[in-house]
Amino acid sequence: MVDVRDEIGVYEYSGGIVGPGITPAATIRSGGTIRTGTPPGCWGPMITPKFQGGHEVTRPVMVEGADIGDAVAIRLKTVRVTSLATSSGVMEFVDGRYLGDPFVAKLCPACGTTSPSSHIEGVGDDAVHCDACGAEVSAFRFSNGYVIVLDRENKVSLTVGKDVAERLARDAKANAAMPEHSMQHSILSLARADISGLSARMRPFLGNIGTIPSRDLPDSHNAGDFGSFLIDAPHGYSFSQDELNRHKTDGHMDTNSVREGAILICPVKVPGAGIYMGDMHAQQGNGEIAGHATDVAGEVELQVEVVKGLELDGPILLQTVEDLPFLARPMSAAERAAVAALGAKYGQTQIEDNAPITFIGSGANLNDATSNGLDRAARVTGLPYDEILNRATIAGSVEISRLPGVVRVTFLCPTPILARMGILHLVEEQYGPRDR
Question: Looking at domain 4-82+205-318, which CATH architecture does it have?
Answer without folding.
Answer: Sandwich (2.60)
